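CHAIN AND CONFORMATION:

***
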Amino acid sequence: LITVLRWQYLLATLGVRVPTRDAARLGWLGLFFSQLIPGATGGDLVRGVQAARERPQQRPQAVLSVLLDRTMGVTALMMIGAVGIFFCPPEVRGDPLLRRLGVILLVAISVILLGGALLCWRGFWQRVGVGRAFRWLPGRRIIARLGEALWTMRRRRAALGIGLLLSFVGHGCFIASAMLLTRGMTGSMPAAENYFFLVPVGQLAFSLPLTPGGSGVGQWAYDELFRAVGETHGAELGVLLQLTAVFWAIAGLGIFRGRGELAEDWAIAVSGQAPAAEGAEPGSPEAPPETPSGR
């Protein structure tokens, strides 16, 4: 729910007004396809395409909102992991694997922040002549409109801060749920300082586009991470977290599909084409519109 509100807020900042119900519908559609497409973030592609289809006059803003939403989520997850390792016990910080992962997170965050600063610095692109290069690329008009939408976000830094804050809240709730699942498995509440490093890194592994939904990759990462701190239930926790995501994806899909609100979304996402018009025969092309007879 928090991620849906974050995306809706980013859309509103870009001038795209989307009701909460529509944002939740597209969010659940993306969550469902995230379990089928390689990488836990694959559903963002479906969500972005569908949002652009529904708002053809605001496609750049819709696409940019999905890109910003995912970037904020990943950046906040990396920040939590990078800071979390400093609060781990000394024996955990001293582990070579975990120490290397902490350095990788810091480097990745630096690259993302530097890239974001350059993207928002219009003078930099003018100096290096990127605008002239884009004139020869296909789809240059779309790229230009994306650039204008990005420039709009640059002038609203408070909105970026609020979006990042919502990301921290959402990830914090997710880490708390992982701790509760561990308590259900082991009978005791785990140490929070370890989870604010282990869970973000494990979720980043789920995001790698190697297997559908990150299945297998995420569980392996959780197992290796938890074994590094002397725990043996990492793989089981990874399975439970993914099953929880699958449960909510199916539940949300059932709610909106039961209301008839996902029929067209499902048809477009699966076939890439809009469903036939009402009254058309199954399997037959849609009847062309009537033309005036001239009488």
